[in-house]
Design goal:
The chain is α/β, with parallel strands linked by helices and about 325 residues long. It has 14 helices and 12 strands. A 6-stranded parallel sheet has the order 2-1-3-4-5-6, sandwiched between helices. A 6-stranded parallel sheet has the order 9-8-7-10-11-12, sandwiched between helices. β10, α10 (about 245-255) and β11 (about 260) form a beta-alpha-beta unit. α7 (about 180-190) crosses α11 (about 280-295) and α10 (about 245-255) crosses α13. It is globular, with a radius of gyration of 21 Å. The relative contact order is 0.13.
Length: about 325
C-alpha cells in the first residue's frame, strides 16, 4: 500500500515538481514549502517575540508530519527540525541539494549537523554531479537523484522574431562561476554588438558587474514568468562550472540551444553529459555566433530536449520514489 508521504522543505522547486508529477500518476504527496517550514529570515526581538514568531511554524510542522508515514527532507539543515519537541518521529529520506554537502559538510560549524542528518536518514540522495564524492564519503550508499523539473509545466520553446536574445539563466555568484561568467559576458557583448541582446536576472553579488559588461538585467520574477522568458530566448548561457542546476535543466528540457564555459561532469548513473556548446571563452563565443545564424538548426544538432527529458523530468522518477517510500514506511525509528 502506498504510504502517506510529506515532501518537507524545497530547493529550486524540485519537491514541488515531484509532488505535481506524483499527483498526475494518481499519488498524493503532501508538500510543506520553505515559506511554511520556518521564518524567511532571522527573528529579531526578545525571547517572547522570537517564540511567538516561531511557534506557528512549529505547529504547522507538527501537524504536517503527524499526517505522514514517510518524510522526504530537502536540504541537510532541515532534518533537525524533525527532532524538535512535539514533532512526531517518522522515518525520513534525505536529499542533499548542493551547498549542504558541497560546503557546509566540510565546515566545522555545520559538519556535525549535516552528518547527523545523513546518519539518521533511512535513505540518502544527492542532487549534483559534483557532490558524489562528498555524499558517498558521508554515506557510502548515497544515491544520485538529479534536480528534477516538472516538464509538463514548461512552455514550448518559441524564440521571438526580430533581434535575438542570449539569456544567462543562472544567478551571478561564486557557486555559478561568476568570475568566468563575467569574462564571457564581456567578450560576448563585444562580439555580438547590436546583432543580439544579452539578458540575465538582477540576482547575485556579481549582477552590477554583469550590467557593466553589457548584460541587460531583469528583476527577479515568478518561476512561470522566467519560464516564459526562457521560451522566447534564442540561446541560453548556462553557469560557468562543471555542473548544471535546475534552470539549465529546464532550458534543456524546453529544447533551447545552450552554451557554457568549461566541460561538464558526467552523470553518476549513466556517464552522459549535457549536449551543449562548450569550451574556452573563444570556443563558446565562436559557437554562439554561429548558432545565432540558425538557432533552430543549432537546437536540432544538439538535441537537448531528447537528452534532458528522460533524465530530469520528475515524472520519470515517480515509480522509483514510490517503491522507496513503501520500503521506508516499513522501517522503525
Amino acid at each position: 500500500m502506498t504510504p502517506e508521504v510529506l515532501q518537507f522543505n524545497d530547493c529550486a522547486f524540485v519537491a514541488r515538481s515531484m509532488v505535481a508529477a506524483a499527483g498526475r500518476a494518481g499519488l498524493h504527496w503532501d508538500y510543506l514549502p520553505p515559506s511554511l517550514v520556518r521564518p524567511p529570515g532571522p527573528v529579531v526581538g526578545g525571547p517572547l517575540r522570537r517564540k511567538a514568531t516561531y511557534f506557528p511554524y512549529l505547529v504547522r510542522r507538527m501537524r504536517a508530519v503527524s499526517r505522514a508515514q514517510v518524510v522526504h527532507v530537502h536540504y541537510g539543515t532541515s532534518a533537525r527540525l524533525l527532532r524538535e519537541r512535539g514533532v512526531p518521529r517518522r522515518p525520513y529520506v534525505l536529499t542533499l541539494h548542493g551547498s549542504d554537502i558541497r560546503r557546509q559538510w566540510k565546515d566545522p560549524a555545520f559538519h556535525g549537523e549535516i552528518q547527523r542528518a545523513v546518519d539518521e536518514a533511512a535513505h540518502v540522495f544527492f542532487a549534483n554531479n559534483d557532490t558524489a564524492d562528498n555524499a558517498r564519503a558521508a554515506r557510502s550508499d548515497a544515491e544520485f537523484l538529479p534536480a528534477l523539473v516538472d516538464a509538463s509545466t514548461l512552455p514550448s520553446w518559441s524564440p521571438d522574431t526580430g533581434r535575438p536574445t542570449i539569456l544567462f539563466v543562472s544567478r551571478w555568484d561564486a557557486d555559478k562561476g561568476v568570475d568566468r561568467q563575467l569574462e564571457l559576458a564581456r567578450t560576448l557583448a563585444r562580439a555580438v554588438g547590436p546583432r543580439a541582446r544579452l539578458a540575465g536576472l538582477d540576482w547575485g553579488p556579481g549582477a552590477e558587474e554583469a550590467r557593466r559588461a553589457g548584460v541587460g538585467l531583469l528583476p527577479r520574477m515568478p518561476q512561470t514568468e522566467f519560464h516564459a522568458l526562457m521560451a522566447r530566448a534564442h540561446i541560453a548561457i548556462g553557469q560557468a562550472t562543471d555542473n548544471f542546476a535546475t534552470s539549465e535543466f529546464e532550458a534543456l528540457c524546453m529544447g533551447l540551444p545552450m552554451a557554457a564555459l568549461g566541460i561538464r561532469i558526467g552523470r553518476p548513473d549513466d556517464g552522459s553529459v549535457p549536449p551543449v556548446m562548450q569550451g574556452s571563452v573563444d570556443d563558446v563565443v565562436g559557437q554562439v555566433l554561429e548558432a545565432l545564424n540558425d538557432p533552430r538548426g543549432a537546437a536540432r544538432r544538439l538535441g537537448s530536449s531528447a537528452w534532458a527529458l528522460p533524465r530530469y523530468d520528475a515524472a520519470s522518477y515517480v515509480p522509483r520514489l514510490d517503491s522507496l517510500y513503501q520500503a521506508v514506511s516499513r522501517t522503525t525509528v
